[in-house]
Amino acid sequence: MYPENLFYTKDHEWLRLEGEEAVVGITDFAQKQLGDIIYVDLPQVGKTLEAHQTLGSVESVKSVSDIYSPVSGEVIEVNSELAQTPDLINRDPYGQGWLVRLKIKDKDELNNLMKAAEYEKYLEGLEH
Amino acid sequence: MKKTRLNAVHNKSGARMVEFAGFEMPLEYRGIVEEHLAVRTRAGLFDVSHMGEIIVEGPEALDCVQYLTPNDAGRLAPGQVQYTALTTPEGTFVDDMLVYCLSKPDRYLLVVNAANTEKDYDWVKEQSARFKVFVANLSDQYSQLALQGPLAEEILQPLTDIDLKQMKSFTFACGKVAGIDCLVSRTGYTGEDGFEIYTLSENPDVIWKAIIEEGTPRGLLPVGLGARDTLRLEAKLMLYGNDISEKTTVLEADLKWIVKFQKGDFLGKAALEKQLQEGLKRKLVGFEMVDKGIARPHYPVFVDDRQVSEVCSGTFGPYVKKAIGLVYLPIEYTEIGTEFEVGIRDRRLKAKVVPTPFYKREKK
Fold it and tell me: Which ipTM did the prediction report?
């Protein structure tokens, strides 16, 4: 459930590195916690974000949750499909349910993120 | 934390469990939206054993119930059920509840909210001191299952000797369900047709499993408290603590239909009469969001840039597919179509007063 090729945050975002760019979404754990997603709030293309800055929010029937940018960078694309079909996040959190694409400012920040095995361990800690 | 007798069944089925009113209860099994839609279109099965059951028994039981409640329990024949409230002398809610007439005039069952069971029991005992009645809290003995949805009758009928076709809304009968002694009423908290099944048996899981087995081929799902809340809100059924409380009167809650001033004296009567005479200053209304966003409980509500109250209930209605809610507004802003604002996180989003219920099932 936690792909090896991704980076993870403690707030349950994932990041996929594609050259100098990063695709960001929320993890399977996060979408399960939220349940049926109704609205997604995403930033404007061109916005620059600091690491940990609020990138947007995801709202489900049950609750609303802020999404934080895993790294610093500029938003170069947002997943416009989500406006019509926000439940793509529930159905395919690592694929069609991606949120934004960033132009990464400083790749060193990736060192602050978790790998799949670490994230899984982190989740185990949360469940106990 | 208390557990219902069905706790093991829920855990085995992989339900996500939460604490509610001191009980470990299922929040959801498959997901709120899926469960919600199952109840609207097919059927859903709920464990609501956390609800409280209080018996009022004795030669003056009817007099006692009449004194405690604003609705006219005198109209109930044995086998009939009524929605009503326990009112304070101020005309506010100790609780809202169902009254079952087991025997007239000497035996009544009050079904109350789980979070209020102890408070209600103490209240009823205290207020009933001047009547020849015996009050018993049987909440720990009773299990309650709710089978709700358009297919409820056809799913339950093969499992019971009660003739469900003959059973009208807000009536009940005693009989066997899956071989177990039960009281079955045609009532619910979803806006759908359906039944609530009460049993003193220590094995309500037998009933649960039989209904699941009978209903699954027809698309029945077990349903948790998450969808129970969205279902009841679409149908504009009150949730104690959110929409009604000891700070809101029955009239402000727009429940005048459960107040029968002609029936004789009852707790809160004078206060309610006075309020009716002077006119309401505020009223509970339904609203939907005009802007994109979901109003949730306690979000601030503004008219003309001034905060006037906060959201009582608010969620996304999975069947009506709108963000809906209930709020007390100053009476001059309660007309249908009136726009106001809800503070949703760092923004103020537009909402408007709409007719309720948000959802009403089509009569057959």
Answer: 0.82
